[in-house]
Write a structure and sequence with these properties.
Elements lengths: L15 E2 L18 H13 L5 E6 L9 E5 L2 E7 L5 E5 L14 E2 L2 E3 L6 E2 L12 E3 L3 E5 L1 H4 L18 E10 L3 H8 L5 H4 L4 E8 L8 E10 L2 E13 L2 E9 L5 E11 L5 E12 L3 H8 L1 H31 L6
Antiparallel strand pairs: 1-14, 2-10, 3-4, 4-5, 6-7, 7-8, 9-10, 11-17, 12-13, 13-14, 14-15, 15-16, 16-17
Helix pairs in contact: 3-6
Length: 335
Amino acid sequence: MSPDRPGSPGRRFPLSLRRHPVAWERQRPTWREARPAVIAEALKRARALPSGNWYVVGATRDVRDDRPLARTVAGREIVVWRDAAGRLVAGPGSCPHLGAPLRDSPVRCGTLVCHWHGLALPGTPFAGWHPVPAYDDGVLVWVRLDEAGGEPPLAAPAVPERPAAAGAVAAVYVAVGTCEPEDVVANRLDPWHGAWFHPYSFVDLTVVDTPAEGEDGFVVDVSFRLAGRIVVPVRAVFTAPGPRTVVMRITEGEGQGSVVETHATPLGSDDRGRPRTAVVEAVVAASDRPGFAVARRMSPLLRPLMRAAAGRLWRDDLAYSERRWHLRSTGRFPG
């Protein structure tokens, strides 16, 4: 991004006015640049990276004091809560006594109490119930399922670098689609679709650099649409630090250093045998502008707006991911 580009870090005002806006149908086509082989190679590199068998379960804020956070991960029922010392605990979501769903059971003083017969689980091995490794990175919670992952385990997940929590606002959006994690990752490794598929959010998108052989990272210049012709131009880099994770990081422009982490967690199959995948997206926004300190104090009001914005995009992007899986599963995917 050139120093005089609107929205560059040195500018006093982050906003820009599109003086000669181009209608959606007249914008430059990107299909020639969005070569299937480039996307496929980026996906291949991502899938070859180690995960250490760690899976994102949900948001740290969703781990409540009174009930566990429950998720099915790779066909396994999992519950997550905090014990009496505040330590994160995770384990099977089925009671070892008669199989009651622990997702419906309360937590009392750090102990998960089965609502069928009162079997109490403090988070340590008991009566055939065994915890699994869990990790709280301050924004997201993870579990390690070695049997499901089948990789050499890592002591902790590879958490992407984020802005310091003290100066950031974080929001987490969760959605579920009929597809596999690779379809979600492939969607995020196709930045060319942004201004065509999401014209309500993105305009003037140009992919200025793609990964060379053995490298990682798509560099994109894009403007976030605010209202009418008012936009916020930025430069962003998309990378895949793991087989189920894609990170978009703003490297120049307003919000420099902010990240959007997209994690794809396999859930299992539905009653028709189709794969289900959870998209867990963490948006961690930061800015060095004085007004952002005021915005941080309003974070309880900002988080729902951030989740709503992510939800609008993912209504489209899950349709993309689901369509990709459908074509793959029927042998008709052209990529």
